TrEMBL record:
Signal peptide: none
Lineage start: Bacteria, Pseudomonadati, Pseudomonadota, Gammaproteobacteria, Oceanospirillales
Xref: SUPFAM superfamilies: NAD(P)-binding Rossmann-fold domains
InterPro entries: NAD(P)-bd_dom_sf, SDR, SDR_fam
Database matches in Pfam families: adh_short_C2 (PF13561)
Family membership: Belongs to the short-chain dehydrogenases/reductases (SDR) family.
Protein name (record): 3-oxoacyl-[acyl-carrier protein] reductase
C-alpha cells in the first residue's frame, strides 16, 4: 500500500533508538523527509545515516539536545520547511515508589511527558490545518489503560496528556481540515527502557533477570515482546493519507496483554 506521504516532512522526537527510531525508519521507507531529535548526537547521526540508506530520495536533518528545552524545540521547527507529521516521543520518568518522589520529580515528569508534546502540538497544528493535512502521533504507554505500580510518574503524566488530546483532537478547526491527533500506547516492546525496568525489578526483588524476562513474556498472549519495526509500521499508517478518518484515539499495541473489553 502506498501511504501517500512521500515528500511530506516529519518531525520525530527521541528518534535515535527504540520506538522513536522505529517510527522514523518506517516514515523514511515511505519517502517522508525527516527532522529527528535525541539527546545523544553520535547515536542520532548514526540513525540519520541508517534512514538515508533506507531511502536515498529523502532529506534527513539532525537536531541533538533535550526536546524538553524551548531552544531545541525551536531548532527542530526551524530545520523543518513544513511540518506535515509530528511524532511526539520522550524518555519516560524512572520507576520507583511515590513515597520517594518529591514535587520536583513530579514537575519534571509532567514537563517531559505532557507539557513538551503539547508545546510542539501548539506550534504546528494550526499550520497543518491551513495546509489541509496534518498527522500528530503521541507515543504514550499501555500504562495509560493499565497502570503499572512502579511507573507512577509515567502513569500520571501520560494520562494528563491523554485527557488533553481527547478534547483537542475533536476541535472542528483541526479535524475538519484533515488534521488527526492520535495516541499510540505501547505494551512490552524489546527496548532499552524495558530492559532497564526489568533489571531494576530483578535487583529489588532478588530475582534472576532471565527468569523474570521469561515470566514477563509468558504473561503476554502473543508470547513475545514487540519490535520497534512493527511499532513504526503502525505509526506510519496513522500518518498516512488513508488514516484521515481516525482521530482522538488511544491505540493499544500490546500483544493482547490488556484484558479489558473496552
Amino acid at each position: 500500500m502506498d501511504l501517500g506521504i512521500a515528500g511530506r516532512w516529519a518531525v520525530v522526537c527521541a528518534a535515535s533508538k527504540g520506538l522513536g527510531k522505529g517510527c522514523a525508519k518506517a516514515l523514511a521507507v515511505e519517502g517522508a523527509n525527516l527532522v529527528i531529535n535525541a539527546r545523544g548526537k553520535a547515536d542520532l547521526e548514526d540513525a540519520a545515516q541508517e534512514f538515508r540508506a533506507c531511502n536515498p530520495n529523502i532529506e534527513v536533518h539532525v537536531v541533538a539536545g533535550d526536546i524538553g528545552t524551548e531552544a531545541v524545540r525551536s531548532a527542530m521547527l526551524l530545520a523543518c520547511p513544513r511540518v506535515d507529521i509530528l511524532v511526539n516521543n520522550n524518555g519516560g520518568p524512572p520507576p520507583g515508589d511515590f513515597r520517594d518522589w518529591s514535587r520536583d520529580d513530579w514537575l519534571k515528569a509532567v514537563d517531559a511527558n505532557m507539557v513538551t508534546p503539547i508545546e510542539l502540538i501548539k506550534a504546528t497544528v494550526d499550520s497543518m490545518a491551513d495546509n489541509g493535512f496534518g498527522r500528530v502521533v503521541n507515543i504514550t504507554s499501555g500504562a495509560v489503560k493499565a497502570p503499572i505500580d512502579i511507573l507512577g510518574l509515567s502513569n500520571g503524566a501520560r494520562s494528563g496528556l491523554t485527557g488533553f488530546i481527547a478534547g483537542l483532537a475533536r476541535q472542528p478547526s483541526l479535524a475538519a481540515n484533515n488534521v488527526t491527533i492520535n495516541n499510540l500506547l505501547p505494551g512490552a516492546f524489546d527496548t532499552e527502557r524495558l530492559r532497564n525496568n526489568l533489571s531494576t525489578t530483578a535487583q529489588k526483588t532478588n530475582q534472576d533477570l532471565n527468569l523474570l524476562r521469561e515470566q514477563r513474556v509468558q504473561g503476554i498472549p502473543s508470547r513475545r515482546f514487540g519490535t520497534a519495526d512493527e511499532f513504526g509500521a503502525f505509526c506510519a499508517f496513522l500518518c498516512s493519507e488513508q488514516a484521515g478518518y481516525m482521530t482522538g484515539q488511544n491505540l493499544l499495541l500490546d500483544g493482547g496483554s490488556y484484558p479489558g473489553t473496552f
